[in-house]
Structures are given as C-alpha cells and as structure tokens.
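Suppose you are handed a protein chain with no further information: no name, no annotation, nothing but its sequence. What can you learn? This example shows the usual starting point.
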Amino acid sequence: MVKIMMVGKYPPHKLNECVKNYMRTDKPAYPGFLKKIENWAAQITGEKHKVYAVYECPDDKIIEGMAALAKRHNFYASVEGYTYKMELLAEADDAIKDFLKK
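A reasonable first move is to predict its three-dimensional structure. Written in structure tokens, the prediction is:
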C-alpha cells in the first residue's frame, strides 16, 4: 500500500465556504480502493489555514488514486484562495534503504 498526503491551504476568511464545500453531498466520490486514514487541521501558517489528509492506496492503483484525489481537491479549489498539493509518502526506513541502493 502507498500513502498519499494531500495538503490544502485556504484563507481564514474562507473557512465557512470551505466547510460548506466539505459538507456537500455532490462532491466527487472517492473510489472504493482509496481509504482516508488521517485528517488534520493545523494552525494558520503564512496567512492561511492548513489541512492534511493521508490516504492508503493499493500499489497498482496509484495513478487512479491520485486522479481521484485531484478531482476531489479541484472541487474544493472552487473556493477562491484554496490551493493544494499531493505528496506520495514512504516509510522512512524503506526510503533510506531505497536511497542507499542507488
């Protein structure tokens, strides 16, 4: 399983609009193979609120999973000032082993 982290940022004055979008039932659905395992909100950094979500995705579905996450977060990006980035995560020990092989 691969872990994918989404980092979203939005201006504080857009909080209510972001929450409304989050609660909407017509937002793009996640495929059944994608599982949200963590979801956090952080303090304001650089004048924006920050949110993190981590998903598990089967290794053979990474492209599909990333496309589904982009579609969902593009929906959230309809709120002016909302931005996001996507990061593939690796266990630190596994990453170190991979780096040492090169």
